[in-house]
Amino acid sequence: MVREYNNHMKITFDSISENEKFARIVVGAFVARMNPTMEELSDIKTAVSEAVTNCIIHAYENQVKQIEIEGIICKNVLFLRIIDYGKGIENVEQAMQPMFTTGAKEERSGMGFSFMEAFMDRLNVISHPGKGTVIEMERELGKDREF
Ligand SMILES: Nc1ncnc2c1ncn2[C@@H]1O[C@H](COP(=O)(O)OP(=O)(O)O)[C@@H](O)[C@H]1O
Ligand SMILES: [Mg+2]
Fold first, then answer.
1. Cβ-Cβ contacts under 8 Å for 114 (sequence gap 6 or more)
2. What pLDDT is recorded for position 146?
3. Which of 17, 52, 58 to probe ligand 1 with, by most ligand atoms within 8 A of CB?
């Protein structure tokens, strides 16, 4: 019988751009035990990068505050939460539209949420203006592999 693999982690780090890479690496290391394919790993890291970048640029507007990532592995499913205590999103539905951005048009593509949606199985955005935002993402890994 294959033992079920479960794990839980939570990290807090500063909202500086160097930590986009740090967050990708930490989440990559966390999922390593699930034996992800290169594509799965790349998808997950891209989704994490997009969410963390949004905390740095939009939530905290380049002020140095705290970002949290919580990860849960439950058998072959990865759950991630990216949490900030920044400015929040007034209209989540609008923010999630492809190409919608409140940033400078030359710099921002407005595709961050679209990538997160495309690369993960499920995306949920909970936001309270003035309080912060929680991005919940879920991805099931290789259905026919053993864990
Ligand atoms: N964590 C966040 N806090 C506040 N606003 C956010 C956050 N994440 C996203 N947003 C808002 O949603 C918009 C769309 O985000 P996204 O799809 O990643 O595009 P982009 O980052 O290129 O603007 C952003 O322009 C911003 O207004
Ligand atoms: Mg973005």
1. 96, 98
2. 58
3. 58
